[in-house]
Amino acid sequence: MKVRNNSLVSDIAFLLFLVLCMICVAFTSSDPNAYVHNFVFLNIAVLIAVITYFTNVTTGLVLNVVFLFGYGTFIVYDAVSHGGAIGLSAYFWMLVTPLLTVAVWLFTLASRRLQAENEELRSQTSRLATLDENTDLKNVVSFTRDVGIFAGLSARYGIPLTLLVIKIKYLKEIRGMIADEQLTELIAGITNVSQSSIRTNDAIYLLDKEDTMWGLLLFTDREGANIVMDRIRQTFREANILKHSGRHRVDLSLKMGALEYDGKTIETPIDYIVQAKKQLEYDV
C-alpha cells in the first residue's frame, strides 16, 4: 500500500510540474513586450525548483522567501516611484514559483521513499531467498533451516548425519585463467557431479557463493562420507570438466572434508559449517 501511495504521489507531482512548466512557457510567450522580464523570472523559478530537487525542501522554501521578499520589494518600489499599477505578471510569478518548488519537493519526497522501499524489499528478498539465483541450489539460508530437520530425523531414527563440504583447489588462481562463462560451466559441472553422487534423500547446498563451497547433508556416518567423496572424485575425473582454457592448461582438483553431526559440540547450523570447513585443511 505504501509503495502504491508513493508512486501515485510521485506521478501526480511530476504531472503537476509539467503542467506548471507549460503554463509558465505559455504565459512568457503571451506578451512580447514583457518577454525578457518573464523569461528571466521563468529561469529563476526553474532554478529554485532544481536546487530544491538536489537539496531539500527547507532550502527551497528559504529561496522562495528570499525571492518573494526581493521581488515584492522591487514591485512596491517600482509602483511607488513610477506611479504605475502592479501588473498580472507580478502576481503570476509570486504564485507559480512556490508552486513549482512544492511540486518538485513532492516528486523528490515520493521518489526517495520509493527508492528506500525498493532497497528494503531487495534486502528482505536477499535475506529470505533460499535458492542461489545462478545455480538454483539451496543456499546457506535454506541450510540453516533444514539442518534442524535433518538433525531431528537423525536423532529420532538413529541415522548418522554428516556434512560433506567441497571446494575447488586454487580457485583464486583459476579465476584469473578462465573466462566467467567457463567458471559458470565449472560450477555447474561440479554441481551435477555432486548431485549424481548422492541419494535422493540427501541434500546439496551452495554454502559460500564468493568462495564457491558446496555442502552436502548426508544420512550416513563418516565412513559413508568417505565413500561419497571417492565417488565424487572418480565421477569428476571421468567428466573431464574444463580441462583446457585457450593456451592455458587448467588442472582441476577438489578439496573435501566431512564432519559427522554431534549435538553436544555443534551449537548452531553456522557452527556446523565452520567446523566442517576446518576438515578441508586435512585434504592436501
What would your notes on this structure say?
The chain has 284 residues and is an alpha+beta fold. The chain folds into two domains: 2-128, no CATH class; 138-282, Reverse transcriptase/Diguanylate cyclase domain (Alpha-Beta Plaits). Helices cover 65% and strands 11% of the residues. It is built from nine helices and seven strands; from the N terminus they run ααααβαβααββαβββα. The chain has helices at 2-30, 35-54, 57-82, 88-128, 140-157, 171-175, 180-196, 222-239, 269-278; strands spanning 138-139, 162-168, 203-208, 213-218, 244-245, 248-249, 254-260. The strands form two sheets. A five-stranded mixed β-sheet has the order 1-3-4-2-7, sandwiched between helices. α3 (57-82) runs antiparallel to α4 and α7 crosses α8 (222-239). The longest helix has 41 residues, at 88-128. The radius of gyration is 34 Å and the shape is rod-shaped. 25% of the residues are buried. The mean pLDDT is 82.
